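Page 42, continued from yesterday. The earlier attempt failed because a stray header line got pasted into the input along with the sequence. Redoing it now with the clean sequence only.
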Amino acid sequence: MHCPFCRHPDSRVVDSRATDDGTAIRRRRQCPSCGRRFTTMEAASLTVVKRSGTTEPFSREKVLTGVRKACQGRPVTEDRLALLAQQVEETVRTSGTAEVEAHEVGVAVLAPLRELDEVAYLRFASVYQAFDSLDDFETAITLLRAERETAASPGADAPLLHP
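This time it went through. Structure tokens are written below.
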């Protein structure tokens, strides 16, 4: 690491700390030539492979933009959207690979968005899954209702007891 002050080609790490929920490392460095200190940030790169085959760095901001469009006019706060984008990034990073398909990012958005707002989920899913007809919407709505009823029915998760 070159010193930003005197351009000396070496530096010594004085301190290292995890930041951004453990996704990056902040290092305090000192130049052996001029003695000045500076900070560097290290983060593991995550690349998204798009449908066209091109690659680009993962962007939490792009996730936020897409989800924000789906949530337009809905009672969803920016804090909740930021938390959702963070969840998506964590989910994608847990795949353990440096490259992920764009499809995987979209799949990672669907589940937390469904929990956040069902209408926004339908909006996002209609674009992401390329709904072609009303039947596609009806199928998605039917699945949402079935999941809601299963979750709401008492004892749905409880095992049946036989006397």
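Notes: The radius of gyration is 23 Å.
Reminder to self: strip header lines before submitting.
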